[in-house]
Structures are given as structure tokens and as C-alpha cells.
Amino acid sequence: MLTDYRTAIENIREELKNYLVSSSLKSLVLGVSGGIDSALTIALAKPICDELNIPIISRSITIKTNKPDEILRAKMCGEAFSHDFREIDLSKAFDILQQTVTEDFETADKEIVEYKIRIGNIKARTRMIYLYDIAGKNKGMVLSTDNYTELLLGFWTLHGDVGDYGMIQNLWKTEVYNMSKYLVRNFDNKAQAKALQSCIDATPTDGLGITNSDLDQIGAKSYSEVDVILIDMLKNNEKSKYKNHKVVQRYRNSMFKRENPYNIPRNKITVVDYF
User: 97-110 burial by CB neighbour count: b if 16+ within 10 A, else e?
Assistant: First the structure.
């Protein structure tokens, strides 16, 4: 786990700065959900965008199941860290899309978890369509807001969460919280500190209405517990004392998402290669 958060933050920001300059990008775009990951991402990006005079464009995109406290935190973060922030409700568009693309819309049991997950995926992909259109309009790229813990758990939607550039993709969730706390302690701007702190204190949820919290789906009591289990599993593999834990099972079952798209290696197709 990280111990020097000041240096880590400086390194992340320097990497982003170099990437923006070398890529000649004109904007950064992301969705702010009221959760800790998008809050940390935009907090990390803001000073670099100020320095380079590149706008951060953020949107709070609600679709039916977002709770009032989530919407409020998203607004606080958007207003504190963005150069261009708006609240967008895509519920009507989602209703039309849901009925159009789900073949069993009329017959499915809409209360079972499997159906809620499917619908949650449609919501996430709808949001990403909106964000990518903004990025195209403003010659920018979409920031990912995923972390390493959720990557390993498959706790994200294919084609619905992953953006173009991951600032915190290789941070454990525990590190996300600790880095956010470090920033709060060192902010001069009270509105920024309050916005980020509100996300630190919030119950983690995907905003998709599947369960009341992320941990309900994951099968653990805290993200600290999840990280301990995953680290032990990665270090010890089959010798891990957690090898039969729900968290490890989720890791194994979601491998296909981390390998997406999987392409059959050429040497598996033909033994003779003239290329």
C-alpha cells in the first residue's frame, strides 16, 4: 500500500500533464456520480487543467435510480472542481432504450438481481454514450474513474465505465480513500474540501439501483477487507487462505472482462505463419 501520498499525487498529475501536452487534447470529460472515485479523479485533474488552460467538463447524469444524496454530492463535486458542469436526466431516453433493446421487456421478472444487473449495464452504457459525444464535440477524452480493486472484482460495466485515461486505475480502493483524505487535509479551498469529504463519508454505491451498497454485491464488510483478501490472493494464489472466499470467486468469474476483447492467438489458429 502507498505511504507517501504527496509524491503519488504529484506523479499522477505530472503524468496527466505530459499526456495532455503530447496528445494536444483540448478538454477532459467525466461523469461525477457523487462517489469517491469520480470525486478523487476530478480533484486530481483540476490543478493540471487550470495550469494548461484545458477545461474539465463534468456531468451528473441521473437515470431513475440515483438517490438525492448522491445527486447532491455529484453537484458539490461538479461545482467545486469543474469548469463546465451540468446536471442531466436521461431517464426518458433510458425508458425508450430499455424497451427497445431488452427482448424480454414485457415478460421478464424485473425484481430479480440478474435483470437489475442487465438494466444497470444499459444505464452505464447510456451515460458513456453521452460523455463520449461531449468529448468528441470538445476535442477531448473521457477520464476513467475505476480503481484497481473494482477492476479485479469485475465491478464495472464493459463499454459503460472504462474511459480513455485512468488516473486511479492502479490504486487499491483503500488507497483511493486515503489519497482523498490527504487531499482534504491539504485543500485551501473549503468548497473543494467539503465536496470531497462528503464522498469519503458516503456509503459506496454504483447508483444503478441494484443493491443498497457496493459491498452488498461484493460480499464483504468493508473495502479494507476486500483489499486484504485480493492482495493475499495475488501473492499466494492457490495457497491463499481466502481462495474459497466470495471475493476471490468474483475475481475468477470476472476474468473475461479484464481480457476483453479476447482474441484467439494467431499461433492457435495456424501452425504456419507467413507474416
Answer: bbeeeeeeeeeeee
